[in-house]
């Protein structure tokens, strides 16, 4: 059983209005050292696969097709092997 | 300059309807090995701080107060040192 942790962020050229809003809120709250904030999405997916290569291919395939918007977002992921009995992600 | 990568997930006892919807969508798309999906949020924050301890304290403070809902969400984060000139997160 594999655990994929997938981090989705906007592509560098895409405006991130949420990040900008959070940055101004933090500045108003006197967190003055903050120079950049970006908000993305984070997925944890548990999957069965034959081997690491098959798991990697599957994660790429479903992330491209379902989890991200390829026009505006990019992603990276880590894969780890987990015990089937671990209930919590 | 520090870069904090903050991963926000639901607490284990909290229902994650988005994760459930994504899991059923993936199953319908013939990704049959998937046993659990959870969706969370991911933040990248660049900040100035005196040292690692100060940066850690600041990240904890603003994450608790602004970025998460402490009733339903939990988080972890990594801190790394980055060059001020790196424009992209």
TrEMBL record, chains A, B:
GO terms for cellular component: cytoplasm. It is found in: Cytoplasm. One of its GO terms (biological process) is 'de novo' IMP biosynthetic process. Its EC number is 6.3.5.3. InterPro entries: PurS, PurS-like_sf. Pathway: Purine metabolism; IMP biosynthesis via de novo pathway; 5-amino-1-(5-phospho-D-ribosyl)imidazole from N(2)-formyl-N(1)-(5-phospho-D-ribosyl)glycinamide: step 1/2. Keywords: ATP-binding, Cytoplasm, Ligase, Nucleotide-binding, Purine biosynthesis. Pfam families: PurS. GO terms for molecular function: ATP binding; phosphoribosylformylglycinamidine synthase activity. This is Phosphoribosylformylglycinamidine synthase subunit PurS. It comes from Leuconostoc falkenbergense. The gene is purS.
